[in-house]
Design a protein that fits this description.
Distance between the termini: 57 Å
Strand content: 5-15%
Radius of gyration: 29 Å
Order of helices and strands: HHHHHHHHHHEEEEHEEEEH
Bound molecules: iron/sulfur cluster
Number of strands: 8
Structural class: alpha+beta
Helix content: 25-40%
Number of helices: 12
CATH architecture of the domain at 191-307: Alpha-Beta Complex
CATH topology of the domain at 191-307: Nucleoside Triphosphate Pyrophosphohydrolase
CATH superfamily of the domain at 191-307: Nucleoside Triphosphate Pyrophosphohydrolase
Length: about 300
């Protein structure tokens, strides 16, 4: 229940759920519809379906008794490697370390693991397992999770309070906040394009982007494609057909914007058209004064302020 959901939101559901289905046999014998009804409002309904399917499997294939090994648990519906390790350690005292994000951070700092995530995961798993005590694996895991959540935090870890500080390689070097290492984001090649800023009296020519894809359905100043290595002339050739436009005026400078996957550079061309000029198909005029009410993405706000600038 706690996946993606806070303890506060889960509390009342958890109590009602356990009051109605106090053990795995009760849940395995329940109607899926009833389980889903009880879950209503908590969201992520696949959790309820998996929980029910898991109880049914435990009841039918394991005589109502949970498998007590990691491998056995992994075969149950809805239980992945992390959950299997967590149940095996916490419920069955198996010598295994369930590695969550907190344990990942603590381990990469303690051992100064240079390899970046996610490639480092197998190494983290092996080194985290060396932190298990001789018994009570569940307690070791929960202690490390709590250490990560409260002391070895992503920013400004409270190392002076940390019971492991004397053995911490990253602390010794003073670079603990740089762990875990993360692979640098791959940014794509610079894309270039043009935006056509057409004014008719107090109106600006705009259109809506296609519903699917980048900035889907949002409003934009008409423009060319955004392509890597595109020359200005190629972009200019994609200007909208407007009878009244004799020539496009190129604004000085460019608008730059960085999307998650690529940086963009736009040249802005401006033109003024006579009153009553009709908008080309798929485009429309909006009063410049009401642009704030349009779904203009940041990159287009930059284009508008560049186009309006002297
Ligand atoms: S000494 Fe600091 S960086 Fe190292 S494990 Fe403890 S809190 Fe984390």
């Amino acid at each position: 229940m706690l996946q993606q959901t806070t303890v506060k939101a889960v509390g009342p559901y958890f109590e009602k759920f356990l009051a109605r289905w106090p053990d795995v046999s009760a849940l395995g014998g329940a109607d899926l519809e009833d389980v889903l009804r009880m879950w209503a409002g908590l969201g992520y309904y696949s959790r309820a379906r998996n929980l029910h399917a898991c109880a049914v499997t435990v009841l039918r294939e394991h005589g109502g008794v949970f498998p007590d090994t990691e491998e056995g648990l992994r075969k149950l519906p809805g239980i992945g490697p992390y959950t299997a390790a967590a149940i095996a350690a916490i419920a069955f005292d198996r010598q295994t370390m369930p590695v969550d994000g907190n344990i990942e951070r603590v381990t990469t700092r303690l051992f100064r693991i240079e390899e970046a995530l996610p490639q480092a995961k197998p190494q983290i798993q092996v080194l985290a397992a060396t932190l298990l005590g001789p018994s009570r694996a569940g307690d070791s895991a929960q202690a490390l999770m709590d250490l990560g959540a409260t002391i070895c935090t992503p920013k400004k870890p409270a190392c002076s309070l940390c019971p492991l500080n004397e053995d911490c390689a990253a602390r010794e070097r003073g670079d603990q906040e740089t762990f875990p290492r993360k692979a640098a984001k791959k940014t794509g090649a610079l894309r270039r394009g043009a935006a056509f800023f057409v004014v008719r009296g107090d109106d600006l020519l705009v259109r809506s982007r296609p519903a699917k894809g980048l900035l889907g359905g949002m409003t934009e100043v008409p423009g060319s494609d955004w392509l890597a290595g595109q020359e200005d002339e190629e972009a200019l050739a994609q200007a909208p057909e407007l009878g009244g436009v004799k020539r496009w005026h190129r604004k000085l400078g460019v608008v730059t914007h960085v999307f998650t996957h690529f940086p963009l550079e736009l040249v802005v061309y401006t033109a003024k058209v006579p009153a009553r000029t009709r908008a080309p198909d798929g485009m429309r005029w909006v009063p410049i004064a009401t642009l704030d009410g349009e779904a203009l993405p940041n990159v287009m706000r930059k284009v508008v302020s560049h186009g309006l600038g002297e």
